Amino acid sequence: xxxxxxxxxxxxxxxxxxxxxxxxxxxxxxxxxxxxxxxxxxxxxxxxxxxxxxxxxxxxxxxxxxxxxxxxxxxxxxxxxxxxxxxxxxxxxxxxxxxxxxxxxxxxxxxxxxxxxxxxxxxxxxxxxxxxxxxxxxxxxxxxxxxxxxxxxxxxxxxxxxxxxxxxxxxxxxxxxxxxxxxxxxxxxxxxxxxxxxxxxxxxxxxxxxxxxxxxxxxxxxxxxxxxxxxxxxxxxxxxxxxxxxxxxxxxxxxxxxxxxxxxxxxxxxxxxxxxxxxxxxxxxxxxxxxxxxxxxx
Length: 298
Fold this sequence. Notes:
By secondary structure, the chain is of the alpha/beta class. The strands form 3 sheets. Strands 11-10-9-12-13-15-14 form a 7-stranded mixed β-sheet, with helices on both faces. The radius of gyration is 20 Å and the shape is globular. It starts with a helix and ends with a strand. The model has no long low-confidence stretch (mean pLDDT 96).
């Protein structure tokens, strides 16, 4: 039986075998970098440990006990098929929703939180990778893939052995928490107040600042390795500013290959070379792909 979310185009690649989906996402990264003039080998994409039912966060529409998603470009409600998209505990919580409006269901793999505007049902905070996450704070939708990325970033940082780390678009401290726990000095910058509060709780000993990472100014922080995890729009203009301080390495986690390639193209002419490109399948059944890039000073 066809899945309603696949038929409605909400999961646009859902009709394809998973191996074909992975190949398409791999190709998307390779083509974006090539178009951007980035000559770098792309490692094979890391599959999601959960090819189906992977998402720990979903926003659903509720109408009189009916739960679903808006068909793209319309207010038509598409019901059913949530088990293809979301984790079992998220699906179970969705089945019990009543009333009307948009509801966000959030899970940390053990606990489930339901957010309706400012009203929160369930635990006040979640724990993702041992980090506190408040209802207004972002965390990655695929818990297992996020854990793989966090582990790789930490392994790369152990090899780089930074004197001081700068974490831009830091959120709750997802990428810098393990280094900080190992005693690495770090400064984080994040604009969302809820995430900043969580980062201050999660990163004792780190310097946690509230501010717009896109407006970071050279000379405002001392560091020799930089991390950044910007939104889909990327970080236009930021990498040349970072390069002015000549960090030994920049680790860039991207959810959009096009803006990733655009940003890298502004860094490489400033004395850097890409030493690693690792895609991850964070979003099965879609064309979205998460990519970790390491650029080191030549």
